Amino acid sequence: MNRLPQEKPLEVVRNEIRADAESARLRAPPRPARKPPQATSNTAPAAATQSRYSISELSHAPFPGFLEHAFQALLRRPPDPAGFDAQARLLAQGRSKIEVLGNLRWSPEGREIGVRVPWLLPRYLLAKCLRIPVLGYLLEWVVCLGGLPRIVQHQRAADIYHSVRLQEVLSAFRGLQAELAAARGDIARLDTDQQRLGVRLDDLNDRTSQLQAEIARVGADAHELRHLVLSMNHWLASLRKNLSALELAEADQARQADTLDADIAARMMALDTARPDRLGGWAGQVASLLPAGARVLDLCSGDDWLACLVGNGIEAIGIDTNTEVGARARAAGLSMAVAEPSEVLARTADRSLHGLTALDTGALLCEMPANSLLVAIRRVLLPGGLVVLGCGREPAGITARLRGRADVQLNAELIRQALLAAGFVDVRTLVASDGAVCLAARIGSLPE
Amino acid sequence: MRAAILIPVLTSKDAVGADALAMASILEDMGIETRVFCQSASGVERKTYPANQLPQFAGGPRDLVIYHFSTGWPAAIELLGRCRGYRIVKYHNITPPEFFSDISADYETACRNGRQEIASIATLGCELYLGASAYNLGELQKAGMPADRGGVLAPFHRVDEMAEAEGDVALIKQLTDGSRNFLMVGRVAPNKGHLALVDAFDAYVRGYSATARLIILGKIDPRLDRYTAAITGRIEALDLADRVLWIDAASEAQLKAAYLASHVFMLLSEHEGFCVPLIESMAVGTPIVAHASSAVPETLGDAGLIWEERDPWLYAASAARLFEDDALRAGMLERARLRYRQQFAIEVLRERFIGFLEPAL
Predict the structure, then answer these.
(1) Fold of A272-443
(2) Compositionally biased, Polar residues: which spans (chain A) (predicted)?
(3) ipTM rounded to 2 decimals
């Protein structure tokens, strides 16, 4: 995902904008000559359609409906707060509806719309004349005096109208009384319903209280459970820590034991003065039986045997169970891993080795049965591959013997027969300068 | 307990009407019987009642009255004086009349009358005065309102409705033609600074040689046609007529489309009591460049680029910087979204409103 660059501090941005504004002002092209304003523009609001109203149509409604209707009819829009307020103030001051209608009709906006209202103009002008000081007052007197018969006529008509309206109002009032009585009955019923609902509401409140108490109890249990889980976590953490400490101590002890075993083996090998010649002789014979650069796996025969094999041009990899022996071999530039021989054999690929050596066969047989060992050797060797098995007590197996696992005197003939029985062929005895022997055999097909 | 909302003229689309209607809904949700009283109403589904009936409905000592003060209306002072319960004045501010000199005598008179009423309202002894901004509250305090009776509550708005509405796809398609879109939302009135906006837009077109469009979205008032004519005159004199798109009386779908398709919301208004379009821009995610006048700085906060100066080149350069600087734009938009969520979201305003009502409940 692309990330935006860091936003600059606002004050820096503002200063850069100021600089950019000055730059833009300087680089802007000179303004073209101004055109005279044109009458046509896409801004003009749509013109209202023409219409016609009589004065009575516009003035019959009472306030405030009168004003709303007048705005809609004469200006084609609802009243705005300022306009409404201005005209409402005039009405409140006792001005006539005619004057308000005239104000709207002959406002710039009203003129533009041009709604026709016959006889409004003379009456509007008259209304305006009545506002002239002194003269207007006298004029109003004359107008009122002249209109007196008509006013009396209106008064009589109004009397009749109001009488009729009064009868209608009385009739409506009686109807309302009847409705009121019915409504009172409804209210009484509603009161009853309300009381019933109140009882149910109380029941619901009780049930809600019970549920709330239950929720509180469950909440307390959950809290306790949480406390227990936290305690368990703490306990498990302590246990894990203690186990780690024990494992560390055990590993330390094992390392000390391996160091002791390796030292004992080294001392024993130092006492065996014939060992270098013996191993050198065997290694030369083994090398003569293998192709150049052959891959050979050695099981627990010691780092000096491994060095002899490598010295004779063999690509040898050793296995030992002692970590100290392994470390010393690696320090000497040899390839040696620390592992159990049975596990290494199980993980080695089929037909991947030219040879396999194990000078301390007795110690090896204490770890795995002879038949399993021989079957495993057959599996990992290439066709024609060579196996070399020692038949004496070699110092490399001393550590195992110190642990009481390999104090076995091997019979060379027994091993020869075992090899033959397992399908190995060309079994030969390799004799060292001190007379010690080991057996070498090649892989062959199993007897029918 | 009963509650009454008092407002001179109720319309659903203006900011004051939306605020009043939202308060009525919240009070009803709280189980309080509520009515709206006004002189006149248009475009509103809700039933309204004549203002003079208010004392009969909610004039008792346990009742609540909320007056939305945004224009002169002497009757309101008289009505509030007759109520015995908890009285709240929500002050939305009144444009100074000087803006309307030589443009509309009606507006000038209405605004002058309204501002003359500020002192009467402030000293009426109402239990609580709410300003749509601290700027508004300051005007009331200056006029004599006791400092311990004041609070700030931004107006309820219809941003959520706009966000949920479907945008006008045809308009979005028309606007997404590669041009940089400059947007201004607000009624076409002389305090809104349209002339300065046109100058800033002209500076951008000339200074940055870019394809750009100015969208002026707002109701055109025929009674302010001199002002409208002055704007169109300036546009034509600067040879910008084919780069300016006017959208009069926009629908919610058009408003949403304009915000979505615009690259910058530019406000050079000279007087605002709050300015709802700023929070609409914050919510929708349109970067903002604004002039620091009246209540604009406190509404905008750190959610946009704001300048004390009126130099048009500064606004042009700000827009150009926002178009090019991805990190700056992303930072601005993130701060805007955060500010909207924390300060102006409906849930936040509702909590604050209910908090202010607590002494009356």
Answers:
(1) Rossmann fold (3.40.50)
(2) 40-51
(3) 0.85
